[in-house]
Amino acid sequence: MQQDNLKPYKFNEEEINKKIFEDRWVRFAFGSQGYVKTNDLSLGIVEFDKNKTSLSHSHDVSEALYVLSGIGAVNVAGELNQVKKGDFLYIPPNMEHSIITEDTDKLKIFFVFGGKIYIDY
Q1: Which of 93, 68, 92, 97 is nearest to 80 (CA)?
Q2: For the chain, how big is the Rg over CA atoms in Å?
Q3: How many domains in the chain?
Q4: Would you say residue 82 lies in a domain?
Q5: Contacts for 25 with CB less than 8 Å, ≥ 6 apart
Q6: Is the pTM above the cut of 0.85?
Q7: What's the pLDDT at 3?
Q8: Residue 51 pLDDT more than 90?
Q9: How many C-beta neighbours within 10 Å does residue 10 have?
Q10: What is the pLDDT of residue 98?
Q11: Under 8 Å CB-to-CB from 8, ≥6 apart: which residues?
Q12: Confidence grade of residue 120 (pLDDT, cut at 50, 70, 90)
């Protein structure tokens, strides 16, 4: 879906194709990879399978996470943050982080980036 002009646009999560990575799937709603193309806002849904640790990585923009379901942890610059449904977490720009899931739960997260970003890992 290309969003060429500025107008409200409604769609459902199920309408967005999943992008499959080794450790997770992602539905990009808005952003350069999004269902709706935007340059100033990037957001979507990501789900990590049970018993996984994502690659440690950083972004040059701020990231905010909201846990939709499951339990796990987010390692941010060596500090382990336990997370569960209903938790928010802010990750400053250029800060190394990784997502860690338990062997009992998948972890589903709503994410927002404070600017343009492209994810290919």
Answers
A1: 97
A2: 14
A3: 1
A4: yes
A5: 18, 19, 46, 47
A6: yes
A7: 53
A8: yes
A9: 5
A10: 96
A11: none
A12: confident
